[in-house]
Amino acid sequence: MIGYVTIGANDLDRARSFYDAVLKPLGGRRTLSYPRSQYYGSTGGAMLGVVLPFDQQPATVGNGVMVALAAASHEQIDRTHAAALAQGAACEGPPGDRGDGFYGAYFRDLDGNKLCIFKMSR
């Protein structure tokens, strides 16, 4: 149902370096590249776009907005979260069981966008 989601960045080259490393454990790779945006995806499914805002104003964080990225295993979540922190992300919740078969980890990227990596085992 979701084709792609975009989040704002203030420095696209810095964001590309960050997401190249962070999405690698999930099998994410660059898909579409444009002067003002970079999209990531894996085999099929939705894409994550990192964009310089169209209105040319600074990128800001949406209060209550979070992008959740599906993972295939707990180990993949652990590796992705560790990669994010190694690239300078802020931890918003370490990997762990959140109940009802939901295992997840949370971080904020270099521009303050909140992301979750998760797996449902139910």
Description of the structure:
The protein is globular, with a radius of gyration of 14 Å. It is α/β, with parallel strands linked by helices. The chain has a four-stranded mixed β-sheet with strand order 1-4-3-2, covered by helices on one side. The chain has a four-stranded mixed β-sheet with strand order 5-8-7-6, covered by helices on one side. The protein starts with a strand and ends with a strand. α1 runs antiparallel to α2. The protein has a single domain (4-52, 65-120), classed as 2,3-Dihydroxybiphenyl 1,2-Dioxygenase, domain 1 (Roll). It is built from two helices and eight strands. β7 and β8 (114-120) form a beta hairpin. Helix content is 20%, strand content 41%. It has helices spanning 12-23, 74-86; strands spanning 4-8, 29-34, 37-41, 47-51, 66-70, 90-99, 102-108, 114-120.
Provide a short characterization of the protein structure.
Helices cover 20% and strands 41% of the residues.
Radius of gyration: 14 Å
Q: What would CATH call the class?
A: Alpha Beta
What is the 3D form? globular
State the end-to-end distance.
21 Å
CATH topology name, in short, is 2,3-Dihydroxybiphenyl 1,2-Dioxygenase, domain 1
Q: Return residue spans where pLDDT drops below 50 for at least 5 consecutive residues.
A: none
- The total beta strand count reads 8
**Mean pLDDT level:** 95
Q: Give the biggest beta sheet.
A: 4 strands, mixed
The number of distinct structural domains comes to 1
Topology order in helix (H) and strand (E) letters: EHEEEEHEEE
Going by helix content, strand content and strand pairing, the class is alpha/beta
Strand order of the largest sheet: 1-4-3-2
H/I helix tally: 2
Beta-strand residue percentage = 35-45%
Q: What is the assigned CATH homologous superfamily?
A: 2,3-Dihydroxybiphenyl 1,2-Dioxygenase, domain 1
Helical amount: 10-25%
Per CATH, which architecture?
Roll
